[in-house]
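It is worth pausing here to work through a concrete case rather than discussing structure prediction in the abstract. The textbook approach is simple: state the sequence, then state the predicted structure, then interpret. We follow exactly that order.
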Amino acid sequence: MAMSFFDQFASPSYLGIPLIAIAITLPWVLYPTPTSRWINNRLITIQGWLMSRFTNQLMLPLNVGGHKWALLLTSLMLFLITINMLGLLPYTFTPTTQLSLNMGFAVPLWLATVIIGMRNQPTVALGHLLPEGTPIPLIPVLIIIETISLFIRPLALGVRLTANLTAGHLLIQLIATAVFVLFPMMPTVAILTATVLFLLTLLEVAVAMIQAYVFVLLLSLYLQENV
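Step two, the predicted structure:
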């Protein structure tokens, strides 16, 4: 029984074809396509306004050189939010519960920020490894610690997103199972548990959006250090 709780995180396949490709591609089909008209419908207008506000907020601390990343970061944010939200629907698969997928997003983007910093301003980029005013005996230790923390960043990005979504899905499934088991025996307790399940679902909707925002925000902060 305990093992079946983790079956929802296994990548599904049909006739030997992994369905994770469809789960990754499907969100792009759901977005309304802007038209060339002067006046759009309400859905496209709201979508454009939200993306414009998010892009402005994200690019605010960056200089002009970092604005080249606006399209990439905004698209990644929208993509992660859509995947996370669709994963909360019944009988669906959440690709972002796979650490391999999240690391596939985190490592190349983090590495790109490091390469940009080393190419454009190597002195400043290497200066982050040694805080100003460090006592001479602590210099080797701090350089090692800062280097380790630098290489842990992509791992933290991927693990944070994976762990939060996985924990939320497990809690929802555990409490939903408790509701079905308790309802024939203790209906009152089952109703109270169902209320907790409803509140937890609302919390998971917020977590799905917040974790996507945190993922992109941290990438923008890493970019800010290197541009």
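Step three, interpretation. The radius of gyration is 22 Å. The beta strands are 13-14, 17-18.
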